Amino acid sequence: MRNRTRPPPAPGTGLSLRQAPQPIADGAADRDAPDDLDDSVLAVRASEGDEEAFAVLVRRHGGRLLALAQHLLGNRADAEDAVQDSFLSAWRRLPEFRHGASFGTWMYRIVTNRCLNALRHQPRPLPLDVVPEPAAADADSSPPRVAESDAASAALAQALLELRPELRACWVLRELHGLHYEEIAHVVGSSEQTVRGRLFRARRVLMEVMRPWR
Length: 214
Known about the structure:
Number of helices: 8
Order of helices and strands: HHHHHHHH
Strand content: under 5%
Radius of gyration: 19 Å
């Protein structure tokens, strides 16, 4: 994913996704401050060419989307590429955005689809750092308990590696990002029943793997 000619970034995006620039479109100075507006209004403005409005959307959602992409792809550099490409796609497709769904859910769908396509065509090992960091050890925690926590994280990472991408996506969206079943169904383009089935299979595998750590 990284060794290719990249298109120019969409307004407000960047590889680091830490701090988007704040360009001001012509005629925007006399309008309400974008930071005070909700996503639906910002999306309308962005679809009219307001780059500052789009930059606010990038800042609001970029962190969560980067975390999602890293959980799915297992590599921060590839995750940054996927999210930037997704924002570029969203910028071009804003006229297609249906405001019945939230902008955040729409972006979850774009990023998830891009990551799943990458996983299908370029499967790769899942590094341990895609799993959430374990809670910081208490001062009284013994070295064996800390080592056990690290080993449990490694076991969970290996179990995620063995999940099919579709199962992994549903599990990550539900357990790590807190999406509801209906939202996940919209994101992955399946029915709620299918999502529930995938989550059941993913949880069953992970529970079996994590049984020794309970």
